[in-house]
Amino acid sequence: MKIGLITLEKRAAPSPIMAVMVPVVSVFMALLVGAIFLKITGREPLPIYFEMFSRAFGTRYGLSETIVKSIPLMLAGLGVAVAFRMQLWNIGGEGQLFMGAFAATWVALSFPDQAAYLLLPLMFFAGCAGGAVWGLLPAIPRAYMGVNEIITTLMLNYVAILWVEYLVYGPWKDPHGYNFPLTAKFTAGAILPTMGDSRIHAGLLFGLTIAVVLWVVFNRTKWGYEVRVIGDSPGAARFAGMNIPRNILVVMAVSGAICGLAGMAEVSGLMHRLQPGFSPGYGYTAIIIAWLAKLNPLAIVLVAFLFGGLQVGGYIVQTTGVPATMVAMLQGSVLFFILGGDILLRYRLRWRRSPDSGAPGKGVGA
């Protein structure tokens, strides 16, 4: 008996139902994988999951901390989604976030006596500029020499992280910081306002505003249409007279600027100083968030909120002996299942029998 071959056949149009189901099933499967891991290690998954989500979303303090955690995830997710829209694989959100934090900190330390109405806008634009420059560095060779941006953006993450570490261990180290590697604390004018007595800061407004603006840009403007066309078919875009190199530069600069703003919001709104490891991988988690949201700016807000709750819940259950790495494992599992589901969204599996079998191929997942 001969065994048929499995091939992938591109769908004419993705199924709307599958487009909704893939993210939902991806999250469910990731939780299932986490449950299996917990069970293997002798823990009961349902009580742990209940503790995680009830404490992260069911209490006033947990909800506020979830929103705080969602702010950098939201901004970084929106940033990388801009590049992904044009199929530019910006894996450098983490480095752009660090450079935005660096540039904003430079402003805060250089002009400590300025009033907030001057200092905060300067920090805002400096954070965006720092991220934009870091996004342009890989964009230039990509636009004019075809250099793969995945490698260059990823490598620049480490350059940015080590640069910040050099500063906080060296020239910017607070002489009154008891030898800890951190800068002096920002003055009052360099700190973003917060909501009541919570730690929710104005970075939330940045994220929500940018999400709405990007939705309008991508769905209602000529430039947004150009970005989509270039991403889907560079040949057709070139034939239509669209300037592909220029759009690569603009898209990567905008992508980096929004990621840089995430760094500015984190040091100004939460840390109030620059220190090593202030980001536990927000730029990398943003990639998962952007894909889970299908690059929809409004959906990114919701997914970032859910992932913020996942991180807060992960910290909470550490008190029960559950390792914090479980959260990272769940995030990785989500990305794994999203990528697998995306293949089924774009393609259908088809059995192709050998020529002498006399039976036609049969599609799966139509």
What features would you describe in this structure?
By secondary structure, the chain is mainly α. The protein has a domain at 72-302. It is built from 13 helices and three strands. It has helices at residues 16-40, 45-57, 60-85, 93-110, 116-145, 149-169, 203-220, 222-232, 234-239, 244-271, 282-292, 297-316, 325-346; strands spanning 5-10, 347-352, 362-364. The chain has a three-stranded antiparallel sheet. Helix 4 (93-110) crosses helix 10 (244-271), helix 7 crosses helix 8 and helix 12 runs antiparallel to helix 13. The mean pLDDT is 88.
Short structural description:
This protein has helices at about 15-40, 45-55, 60-85, 95-110, 115-145, 150-170, 205-220, 220-230, 235-240, 245-270, 280-290, 295-315, 325-345, and strands at about 5-10, 345-350, 360-365. By secondary structure, the chain is mainly alpha-helical. The relative contact order is 0.21.
